[in-house]
């Protein structure tokens, strides 16, 4: 009995048990219990701010949890739209290449909320998602962000075959600028193999 308790306690501290349980629940409910989702439709998951989610002030959700909720929401959309099944078939991955987020208002302790996620652009390699966290009591958008997910299959071909008749939405102006920033950052980092190389890219102004 004690050895089992010790093993469970060890597993809890060595592995993020809650994360893997949540992913398993999202995958199983998304695949077997919830309706299939057209690729450009928004998926919705729900949550509540628990004491384990708050920051050191113990009043509102800490910054890292927003990105974590975006991860869960993206996984829900990918499961219900068939992206995850395609990933399993091709033996690829579902990696995040970039994130941006704007915190508009805090989500307070014990507040209930929903996370809305939808693809708003894609090309052969990437899917660009729009994320929003909205509190249920008042409908206020508490945070908004974009994520760029990298896949190892042709996303455009997948959409054309599995979701025929879907057209790409018009790319928002702020996403155009975000993609330009990501490209500029990538070009800069291609010159940096070490931390010293990176530091050298900060050029001081000459008087």
From TrEMBL:
Keywords, alphabetical: Membrane, Transmembrane, Transmembrane helix
InterPro entries: HotDog_dom_sf, THEM6_lcsJ_thioesterase
Superkingdom of source: Eukaryota
One matching Pfam family: 4HBT_2
Transmembrane spans: 6-28
Homology family: Belongs to the THEM6 family.
PANTHER family per record: PROTEIN THEM6, PTHR12475
Record protein name field: Protein THEM6
Organism: Orchesella dallaii
């Amino acid at each position: 009995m004690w050895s089992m308790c010790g093993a469970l306690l060890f597993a809890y501290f060595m592995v993020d048990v809650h994360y893997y349980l949540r992913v398993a629940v999202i995958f199983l409910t998304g695949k077997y219990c919830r309706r299939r989702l057209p690729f450009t439709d928004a998926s919705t998951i729900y949550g509540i701010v628990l004491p384990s989610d708050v920051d050191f002030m113990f009043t509102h959700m800490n910054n890292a949890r927003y990105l974590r909720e975006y991860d869960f929401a993206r996984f829900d959309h990918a499961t219900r739209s068939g992206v995850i099944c395609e990933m399993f078939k091709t033996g690829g991955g579902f990696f995040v290449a970039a994130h941006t987020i704007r915190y508009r208002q805090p989500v307070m302790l014990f507040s209930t909320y929903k996370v809305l996620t939808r693809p708003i652009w894609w090309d052969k390699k990437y899917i660009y998602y729009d994320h929003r966290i909205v509190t249920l009591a008042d409908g206020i958008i508490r945070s908004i962000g974009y994520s760029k997910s990298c896949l190892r299959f042709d996303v455009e071909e997948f959409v054309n075959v599995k979701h025929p008749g879907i057209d790409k939405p018009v790319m928002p102006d702020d996403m155009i600028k975000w993609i330009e920033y990501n490209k500029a950052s990538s070009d800069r980092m291609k010159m940096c193999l070490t931390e010293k190389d990176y530091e050298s890219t900060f050029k001081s102004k000459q008087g």
